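Hi, here's the filled form for the chain we discussed.

Project: internal
Contact: R.S.
Residues: 439
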Amino acid sequence: MFDNLQNRLEKAFKTLKGQGRINDLNVAETVKEIRRALIAADVNFKVAKDFTDRVLEQARGQNVITAVSPGQLLTKIVHDELVQLLGGIKSDLKFSGNPSIILIAGLQGSGKTTFTGKLGKLLKSQGKNPLLVAGDVYRPAAREQLKVLGGLTEVAVFSEDSNNNPVEIAENAIKHARLNNHQVVIVDTAGRTSVDRQMMDEIAALKRKLNPAEILFVVDSMTGQDAVNTAQAFNDVLDFTGVVLTKLDGDTRGGAALSIRSVVNKPVKFVSTGEKPEALDVFYPDRMASRILGMGDVVSLVERAQAAFDEEEAARLSKKLAKSNFDFDDFLIQLQQIKKMGNIKDLLGMLPGVGSKIKDLEVDDNAFKGIEAMIQSMTPAERAKPEILSGSRKQRIVNGSGRTIQDLNRLLTQFNQMRQMMKSMQNKKMPMGFPGMRR
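And the returned structure, exactly as it came back:
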């Protein structure tokens, strides 16, 4: 996400490296490079020009204090302007009515149905009782897809498979929600391959009938300026309340994310970075600006860890560690909780200074599968006491997991090293090494 833009911005800031102060000449050259970087990232030309004009105005005449280099000063100016470009502050969902209705709109393939499932899971984690409504009556298997997502996230789904009238389905869903104490109804709607009058009339009719508290426009970040143009067309008809950017983990140049707020004057509310139900983040302009500039996003990383790690499990594990009883069952639980946090490369990109260094690194999200397979091929006794693993036991484990003896020996060595490290940390009364763990 934003890798190319991040690299080009870094090169632009290097123009000021070693210079004692910002002057009209050096800042103009740097700002010109920033504008080129934004346009290369498929940012709307007017947005890019207005942005760099503001940066230039802010930077001219700035004095550089001893502890701050010109490059650092300009980075801060660009960061502050990026925050404003992206909306300034977080925009929360608004809830009103009984039930509160959220209408999901967008083109086909933008990720509307997947987002609907993710939003249901997020709202459920916040203590609400959402109902997902299968309102896409055209795309084959759209209703079935939402049912599967509802099953995965344990969120209720309303679907009338024999009814092909989206307005009737939504109205019946609202009646069902009132009878079953669903405070929020999320209506997935049909998409098309292009903006057409039939689609617009249908979604407009849904808006009139439902009077939703929120209308969220879901846009595929990988479509660049086309996404912004589509957003304008939808906004003219729907006057939607917020934007959702999907597929930010793909090969996207970032133009849609940086342009859409300025062009349609509507806040980005969520960003999605993968297919997993957990891969949905509330959009924070300041955090996104930091990530674009390679500063990382530690706050979001910690929030993901807190959401993924179970407090009761963490407390149980802490007690086991205190008695030096950490075993492979505990290790397996920790791996599974880490996987809940999302795409591994995306997580690494949240660490300050790491994003640009891993842009060409292939990070396999299935890297844990081999480890899990070996642990799951062990007996309960072997997981609890891996020291009993003899040659024949090891052979049985590698045969069952499809791995090699070398893979298993490497896992055992790493596990023992980690167990020794945790034991020494306990003896020194140091904080635990796993996220979510408490003393």
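Let me know if anything looks off before we file it.
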